[in-house]
Amino acid sequence: MIRRAAALLTTLLVAGCAGLADSAGRTSQGTSGTGPITFATGRDTTAYLRPLLDRWNQTHPAEPVTLLELPEAADEQRAQMVANLQAHSDVYDVLGLDVVWTAEFADAGWIVPLDRSVFPLDKMLKGVADTAIYRDRLWAAPYTSNAGLLYYRSDILKKEHLKPPRTWAELRDQASRLSAKYHIGGYAGQFLPYEGLTVNFAEAVQSAGGQILDPDARRVTMDLGATRTALDFLVGGVEEGWIPQEALSYKEEESRLAFQEGRLVFARNWPHAYGPATHSDLAGKFEVTRLPGLTGPGSSTLGGLNLAISAYSKRQKTALDFIRYFTGPEIQRLVLTEGSFPPVWAELYDDPALIKRFPYLPVLKEAILSARPRPVTPNYNQVSLVISSAVSGALNLSKPVDETVADLKQQLGEVVQPGG
């Protein structure tokens, strides 16, 4: 009994010193470990990340961070992380998690809870911190936020005396006419069957006034009418040709390049595509606005990246120190200025100097604040696979819209309420 009490006391002291257990209480192994760490995250397509990491390395020569770039696609990133964590590997110390993975990784015991008091959550955009909370515990630190935007060729619209579309009808009309006149694609999003397609479809459904699941993913709340309207909009674009066939193979990078290279009039993408376009031949010829919806501005899916600590890391104290630094004000500003990624600190969106340099910041802030988070569930990956597979079949015109919607509702029910 004495040995047990001593062991328990040691565990509590280590956890308290490291600041890695929240007030609710779960602790993790190796919380006092220091030394070189690795940061596993998706591929850095804008080449902004290494210079930021160098800032840490220059001031922490005994605790350098090494970047481990995973694939670009979120699904593939998750697969590699899960394989590593299921093997209890200590190769990854800090994990760059898509905001939708929090519940799954926490529920599986792959990441450790963090002390809320060491992070300035009150300085972050409303709703952003919630993406890192599961069952009232903080499991990661918000690093970037995200919301989909509509990129459009402002030079073409100006020449045609058109305002950027606010509704689907306007987008359909402009994309159809301008595509034919200028011999380029009308509109594209991320339509390959992966997480990106789930996001695009969810945005369409909520922009039509619907919802797929309740926030806790315990019930399928999918309104058949709104879902049918949303899918009709996307499928109609393919059938009518203003969504080009090649867009069915696009992920984020393919759609970014298609727009940047002048092959599209309109494109749905994340804000990170803005910076590269301003340094291309398209500079001065494009702008961004909120996604259009059925009757007015639509609603984006809330995206972003959170930084978590692997439960199997042997250097969790260094990992925590790195995350605190990397989510702090200095790096948050550079995340925007060097990477074109939306920071999580609210004050940066109202900075006059930044707005002058990035005129889209007010629009982006509106998009983030009006965005909806994806359902919080450890089974989110399975939910996403069901949605992307069903929607892909409809976009490829292999299954009618009505049948797709009915089947999708049934399949989601089997995932969310098995045996119910």
Report on the structure:
The protein is α/β, with parallel strands linked by helices. It has two domains: 213 residues, Periplasmic binding protein-like II (D-Maltodextrin-Binding Protein, domain 2, 3-Layer(aba) Sandwich), CATH 3.40.190.10; 191 residues, D-Maltodextrin-Binding Protein, domain 2 (3-Layer(aba) Sandwich). 43% of the residues lie in helices and 12% in strands. It is built from 16 helices and eleven strands. The strands form three sheets. A five-stranded mixed sheet has the order 2-1-3-11-6. Strand 1, helix 2 and strand 2 form a beta-alpha-beta unit. Helix 7 crosses helix 8, helix 7 packs across helix 15 and helix 15 runs antiparallel to helix 16. It is globular and about 60 Å long.
- Rg is 22 Å
Distance between the termini: 46 Å
Shape descriptor reads globular
| SSE run | HEHEHEHEEEEHHEHHHEHEEHHHHHH
CATH topology of the largest domain: D-Maltodextrin-Binding Protein, domain 2
The percent range for helix content is 40-55%
User: What is the highest CATH level, the class of the largest domain?
Assistant: Alpha Beta
Structural class: alpha/beta
Quote the average pLDDT.
Answer: 91
Strand content range: 5-15%
- Physical arrangement of strands within the biggest beta sheet: 2-1-3-11-6
Classified in CATH, the superfamily of the largest domain is Periplasmic binding protein-like II
Task: Please identify, by name, the CATH architecture of the largest domain.
Answer: 3-Layer(aba) Sandwich
In this structure, how is the largest beta sheet organized? 5 strands, mixed
Number of domains: 2
Q: Kindly state the number of beta strands.
A: 11
Low-pLDDT sequence parts = 1-30
H/I helix tally: 16
Protein name: ABC transporter substrate-binding protein
Pfam family, one: SBP_bac_1
InterPro entries: Bact_solute-bd_prot1, SBP
Family: Belongs to the bacterial solute-binding protein 1 family.
